[in-house]
Amino acid sequence: MLLRLVVAARAFRFKTVFMKIATWNINGIKARHDNLIAWLKDAQPDIACLQEIKSVDENFPRQEIEALGYNLETHGQKSFNGVALLSKLPFDEVNRGLPAVNGEPDETDDQARFIEGTFSTDGGSLSVVSLYLPNGNPVETEKFPYKLNWMERLEAWARRKLALEEAFILAGDYNVIPMPEDCHDPKAWEGDALYRPESRTAFRRLCNLGLTEAVRNVTDAAETYTFWDYQAGAWQKNNGIRIDHLLMSPEAARLLNSAEVDKHTRDWEKPSDHVPVWVDITA
DNA sequence: ATGCCTGCGGTTCGCAGA
User: Fold this and answer.
1) Residues A44-100: pLDDT tens digits?
2) What's the CATH number for A19-282?
């Protein structure tokens, strides 16, 4: 009897559930719907964070995604931006929009770039954010300060969240090249908003709160890129950049098993210029 | 130095992206 209890307790304690959490800037849900469905069937993420859906919520094509077993929450706008969360787990809570630095809703920001879902797992609560950080170009316009302000607000959000000591993952298109080795041709990016010292410093500050950037936590492989421009044969020349990242709280990072880039989707017909990046965690 | 290419809205071109 005692033995059976011990066996049952061990089985419970060591029950391992793997979860795959992915992020992908799809560059338009209407243009990328079929590619998205193909990738979902193939990669089978438990949670997928999408960016640049370029659609209002009412027009987002839900049917085939839901038929694959996903719960779906969107935060869209007309023509530009827009983020979404797909999850096989039911959502406990959904929060739309990145708050101001003080934690209050930011009424001055009407761009749809942030959606958070919270979930219950065997290991406790898990929060996953799909974010689309502003590009910031051209740097001499108001777009660059908007980017830096957005990063300040993101850092403030992460500080508040870290105080709760729970597992969370900030996944998305950060529009930041963290290091020279994260692009094919660093010289070509000098002065660009994606590579400006202010952008890289803000990204580093975010990481240095105690977040783990998943891909660089598991590999230092050269030429690990997540975006290749449509123009000038960038894909064929492997002229890429690494700007899509998953940042994990300590409680999430301790569960990290692997992190990968689904580079092959860039070779598909009508590809997005970004490819999916994902982590596997023990949840 | 500039455009390269693509998606979107809304009409055949302008804007945005990175």
Assistant:
1) 999 999 999 999 999 999 999 999 999 999 999 999 999 999 999 999 999 999 999
2) 3.60.10.10
Distance A173 CA to B7 C1' (A): 17
Q: Is A141 near strand B, with its CB below 7 A from some atom of it?
A: no
Give the Cα separation of A45 and A218 in Å (integer). Answer: 19
pTM above 0.70, yes or no: yes
Written as one letter, the residue type at A126 is L
Structure tokens at A194: 């994606």
A43 with A278: CB under 8 angstroms?
yes
**Cα-to-chain-centroid distance, residue A72:** 16
- The span from the CA of A131 to the CA of A250, in Å, is 19
Cα separation, A229 vs A242, whole angstroms: 12
* Whether the Cβ atoms of residue A139 and residue A32 lie closer than 8 Å to each other: no
Given a cut of 90, whether residue A119 has pLDDT beyond it is yes
Nucleotides of B under 7 A from a protein CB: 3-9, 16-18
